[in-house]
Design goal:
heterodimer; A: alpha/beta; 6-stranded mixed β-sheet; 17 helices; 20 strands; B: mainly alpha; two-stranded antiparallel ribbon; 15 helices; 2 strands; about 75% helix; disordered N terminus
Chain lengths: ~500, ~450
């Protein structure tokens, strides 16, 4: 009954330093919906890029309809009936739906495009698959959900028999997700075989027929969706032992919170609520870890705390005052420190020197500037930077080297040096170790713990459960803009937290 | 930016040298800018030797303070930054020569005339050309530092010129009072003209390239109305489209007043331009205002995350840019023309963009590229007059220089993209590796 249409055998993808895919065998049957479930960095995207001809596998074979194939570019993959919809759409905003769909394989003779035929084909395709859309609408006037339909139609127009969808629901609203599921089922019933890459358990349960779980570049298991529970899936996905790399001493927590958030609501750039009634508090001398899958409002929460994103409603209480209407500068000067997740975009001015990057934020006060804050004191900036370069072991040619010339770990150390030496009362840390090597991670973890031991209240946001478990005293699980569960670190394990993180289990909580 | 602290101090000598260098350099600059040739005799060109002496003393002092190794490094770095513009100019001149050869002109004769005309015979015209260019180029360069493109410096220049004329026709006070007043007023009007683009940029995100350019044309067509309103009787003017002559007290001092043999048209505007360039350099690199503006220009997200207001700094940078372009109008009216002509002073705003680009937005560099541009224009006219070569060849050389400089930008941009790709790839692999190690 099950007839394989796509098969990988022993796929290995070795990057210069990393083994991203390690002996991957998966089979996609004709007319089924297959999910690839895994955490960030589990090797899902690498595998998809191998399938789509973007990467050449180091070893292994790909079979389509039982015949071995070799792709040297996505063009080859498309010719073999593969279609891919990326998480970020590749559409031309100012062109119409029809124009976008035919772009690159326009019907007609020579330089002439047969728009009439194209329009008919698009219409026919969208009717056949139940992907209702106006072929003449401009992309910029369409909602994200409809834009996704255009991407799918684009693949179908190129005769895709196999459709790969990368995190398809990440950008959709709940209603759009429902419609998307209907569309995907209709496609399956029309004989299209579909692979969905995801890290959401609910999605796997709702839509797929079968699921492969990837972890650390390997296939951790294969299950028929109907026969597996969310708990089992969560276990397979995140189940691993916690390696405590940094020693954590017991430290008494002060009873009065330094920072409290009450019923906070924040919207994203599209005015969709992303932090939706969030309440938490942070006490001096504790690390509160926010666990959650990427895109559940964590970054928006951090930005709202720092005044980088407007607060729709709620209270941000720092040492007794509501700071929600203060400027970022005022918050910084109230001793709220912030380590952003994207250090190149938000953390550093890369062409500026290390000394300037350490001074920024306090650049208009002594000792970085003269008493009236007008003239910069480069000498003082440089000597302070030199001190911190020693203290934080920053590997740089000197304080006057541009920050852009440093390695990622050392750039992060520059940010830490700046933020931690401001004697913060509250430290907001978002993904402090993303993309860093083990040595740097360990160092940064020890510095965060040192802050806690100096009675700083630390709010740690991380996508890495290991980091949360290694550092946090309390774990708050954030899901769809809300804290859905609170744990004491010692009283839970990664499986349980993972289940709440992926929406597998919900609890009515205040 | 700042000198490193590891001084190998050798006593009093370096400290005594500093004022000597400044004095020598300043005196040499004034002399050189006032240099002229009249009646076959040359005057004040020896000022350039004073500048050279000041430069040599500076290098000697640097070597004493920082040691030979650091000195060598310093020379290397300076050479690297100078290499691209110098190569660009040389290459452009060669290309211009090839074009002349192909079209039947004698490049040696033509270039001989151009350099003789631009650097010696009509050097005073080069200087006169350079002054307004330096102001408008400073305006464009300043906006560049905030990541903005003031393409409409021409408009603020016109506004400054009108403001300068208006006030200079009306206040009769001591020159010492009048001139600074007019200076500030012209700059202010240039800045006020910039309020609209600045406001639109901050509030709605309207691109400053569009808004400043549109306002440049508006300002240009306001000028005839202004001139009619302040115009003299067409009967006693050789040119009907011109305002009355401004009052004597508002006229900028001429160099002749302290260099008797200088060309009588050359005025102190060029010196003011150089002082303003130094001031802008100071603001950009030694004040917290400049720091914030540069931070916003380089990475506005990171600047914002550190409490630097992006809107405020964009506003500030655009207004200062408007002020600087307005000063070009002051220079032209109070220094050279002493009245406002219609259509006769067009183009300094647009050419300022080229001058700023060529200097890569460096305010000190603008002084040199402004002089180069002024020299090419003056030399080109002289060349056209004395040889049969059309002055269009100079425009070709100018265009080629710009092209080569912009090509360098393209080159750097490609390098940046490649580096970013490498970094991203490394980061991705790192993430994957982390996951591996956890598993």
């Amino acid at each position: 009954m099950a007839q394989p249409i796509l098969e990988t055998r022993h796929i290995v993808k070795q990057f210069p330093k990393v083994l991203a895919n390690d002996d991957i065998n998966i089979t996609l049957n004709k007319g089924e919906i297959l999910c690839l479930l895994g955490e960030n960095g589990a090797g899902k995207s690498t595998l998809m890029n191998v399938l789509y001809g973007l990467y050449k596998p180091t070893a292994g074979e790909i079979f389509i309809d039982g015949k071995t194939v070799e792709f040297s570019s996505p063009r080859d993959a498309i010719d073999r009936g593969l279609g891919m919809v990326h998480q970020h759409f590749m559409l031309v905003d100012t062109l119409t739906v029809t124009e976008n769909i035919i772009l690159g394989s326009e019907p007609g003779k020579g330089p002439q495009i047969d728009y009439k035929a194209a329009w008919k084909q698009v219409k026919e395709l969208s009717d056949r698959h139940g992907l209702r859309i106006d072929p003449d609408a401009k992309i910029m006037n369409l909602s994200v959900g409809l834009q996704q339909r255009v991407e799918i139609l684009k693949a179908l127009y190129r005769q895709a028999k196999i459709l790969i969808l990368d995190e398809p629901t990440a950008v959709l609203t709940p209603q759009e997700v429902e419609e998307f599921f209907t569309v995907v089922r209709a496609l399956r019933d029309n004989g299209v075989s579909i692979i969905i890459i995801t890290h959401k358990l609910e999605e796997v349960k709702a839509i797929s027929d079968r699921v492969y779980i990837l972890r650390g570049g390997k296939v951790e298991g294969e299950r028929t969706t109907a026969d597996v529970s969310k708990e089992d899936l969560a276990n397979l996905m995140v189940g691993r032992s916690v390696v405590l790399s940094v020693e954590k001493k017991d430290h008494p927590v002060k009873p009065n919170p330094v920072f409290q958030i009450e019923d906070l609501r924040v919207t994203d750039d599209r005015h969709i609520p992303v932090v939706d009634g969030l309440t938490l508090d942070v006490h001096p001398g504790e690390i509160v870890g926010i666990a959650g899958v990427d895109g559940n409002g964590q970054s928006e929460l951090a930005e709202a705390i720092m005044g980088l994103r407007p607060v729709a409603s709620g209270v941000l209480n720092h040492e007794g005052d509501d700071i929600k209407n203060l400027t970022t500068k005022e918050r910084i000067h109230r001793k709220v420190s912030y380590v952003p997740s994207d250090r190149h975009r938000y953390g550093l001015v890369l062409p500026f020197t290390v000394a300037e990057n350490i001074a920024i934020g306090y650049h208009d006060r002594a000792p970085n500037a003269s008493a009236h804050g007008w003239r910069l004191e480069y000498g003082a900036m440089a000597s302070r930077a030199e001190q911190l370069i020693t203290d934080f072991d920053i590997r740089t040619p000197g304080p006057l080297a541009p920050a852009g010339n440093l390695s990622g770990g050392n750039q992060q150390k520059v940010i830490l040096a700046r933020e931690l030496t401001r004697e913060p009362s509250l430290l907001v840390v978002n993904q402090p170790t993303r993309g860093l090597d083990v040595g740097a991670i360990e160092y940064i973890h020890s510095q965060i713990l040192a802050m806690r031991d100096q009675d700083v209240g630390v709010l740690l946001i991380s996508l890495e459960l290991e980091e949360i478990f290694g550092l946090a005293d309390r774990i708050l699980v954030m899901y769809e803009g809300r804290i859905v569960k609170e744990f004491k670190t010692g009283e839970t394990d990664e499986r349980e937290v993972g289940l709440y993180m992926t929406g597998g289990k919900k609890e009515q909580s205040a | 930016m700042s000198a490193s602290k590891n001084t190998q101090s050798t006593g009093m000598l370096p400290r005594l040298l500093s004022p000597a260098i400044v004095l020598l350099g300043a005196a040499g600059t004034v002399l050189w800018l006032g240099a002229t040739m009249s009646g076959g005799e040359t005057f004040y060109f020896w000022g350039i030797w004073l500048i050279a002496a000041a430069g040599a003393l500076y290098l000697w002092r640097y070597r004493m303070l920082n040691g030979p190794a650091e000195f060598k490094d310093h020379l290397h770095r300076a050479g690297r930054t100078m290499a691209v513009p110098i190569m660009g100019v040389t290459l452009a001149i060669i290309i211009g020569g090839v074009i002349m050869l192909l079209t039947g002109y004698d490049p040696f004769e033509a270039y001989g005339a151009m350099f003789f005309g631009g650097l010696v015979r009509n050097w005073h015209i080069s200087v006169l050309n350079a002054a307004p260019l330096i102001f408008t180029a400073l305006s464009v360069a300043f906006a560049f530092k905030a990541g903005l493109f003031n393409i409409g410096a021409e408009g603020q220049y016109y506004l400054g010129a009108m403001a300068a004329t208006w006030l200079s026709l009306r206040i009769a006070m001591l020159a010492l009072v009048t001139i600074p007043l007019v200076f500030v007023f012209a700059g202010l009007l240039g800045a006020i003209w910039m309020i609209i683009p600045a406001f639109l940029k901050v509030r709605t995100g309207a691109h400053e390239v569009i808004t400043t350019m549109m306002l440049a044309h508006t300002a240009r067509y306001l000028s005839p109305i202004f001139i009619r309103a302040n115009g003299g009787d067409p009967a006693d003017s050789t040119h009907p489209y011109v305002t009355d002559k401004i009052l004597e007290s508002s006229i900028l001092p001429r160099l002749q007043e302290f260099l008797p043999n200088a060309n009588y048209r050359v005025h102190t505007g060029i010196l003011i331009a150089i002082v303003v360039a130094l001031l802008i350099h100071y603001i950009l690199y030694h004040t917290s205002w400049g720091f914030e503006i540069r931070a916003v220009g380089e990475n506005k997200d990171a600047a914002r995350a550190q409490g630097i207001s992006v809107g405020k700094n964009i506003f500030r940078a655009l207004l200062i840019a408007g002020f600087l372009a307005g000063l070009a109008g002051f220079n032209q009216v109070n220094g050279l023309d002493h009245r406002l002509y219609e259509n006769l002073q067009a183009g300094y705003g647009w050419n300022g963009i080229s001058v700023a680009l060529l200097a890569a937005g460096n305010p000190i560099g603008v002084v040199f590229t402004g002089l180069l541009w002024g020299m090419l224009d003056a030399g080109g006219q002289f060349m056209a007059r004395t040889t049969s070569t059309p002055s269009a060849i100079v425009e070709i050389v100018k265009g080629t220089i710009l092209f080569l400089v912009v090509a360098r930008y393209i080159y750097t941009a490609i390098g940046n993209i490649r580096r970013r790709r490498q970094r991203e790839r490394a980061a991705r692999e790192q993430i994957a590796e982390d996951a591996r190690q956890e598993a």
